[in-house]
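note to self: dont lose this again. the chain is below, predicted strucutre after it. 260 aa total, dont forget to put it in the shared folder this time
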Amino acid sequence: MRDSILLTNDDGVNSVGIWAAYEALSDIADVTIVAPATQQSAIGRSISIFEPIRANKIMINDVAAYSVAGKPTDAVIIGLYSLKLNPTLVVSGINIGENLSFESIMTSGTVGAALEASNQGTKGIAFSLQVKDQGDKFDDPRHHSQSFEPAKKVIRDVVSRVLKNGFGDHADVINVNIPSKITGGYEITRLARKLFKTGVEQRLDPRGRPYYWINGPLIDDAEEGTDVHAIRKGNISITPISLDCTSFAAYNEFKKIFSK
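---
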């Protein structure tokens, strides 16, 4: 019996990245695309609980897919509980742009979908492709000048290995980041602390009232062993992630503080 994959993303059902992933995986598993109808980047694990969610079956490239008028987590939940797909694995991506560091995985809709899948009982893998120009993240995701061919080989190989060997006992999600130019191999990494030097730019509207853009350049590098450093070296970063955010290093210290 063939394995089955629920494929989702946060760039939208029309994104070139999700269809590259479909092409990479459809020969090794039965793949069903359930993805947001529109761009939903940087929305994390946000979930729609105050409005209804519409999901429409559509045809793209002669393949049936489900377009969900909601967030990446909504798409996962619709796929699992409404469409009753019961997949072997949930794959999220290929995202246009890196998802590296504590900072990014807490806000990434790509990683958020994989986290939600694992939270619901099906392990998830998130795939992201580094872009040469950060502005590419904000262009139309239906078109992209960067080749996805190397990334397709990575996603097929990683998923094949996981389907064969499993996740092990201590990982809930695997976060995979692929450099724009691969010059090395796989590197098992930990999360760096930050990816951006956060800033805020204030501008004035035509009436002289201020408005703000959150912005900031990428951090050039991080310490050895981190996902940021691996990508900068041209390696494929593979970071195992746990849903349990408990700080066990602080556990005993807090027991002392609150013992009386």
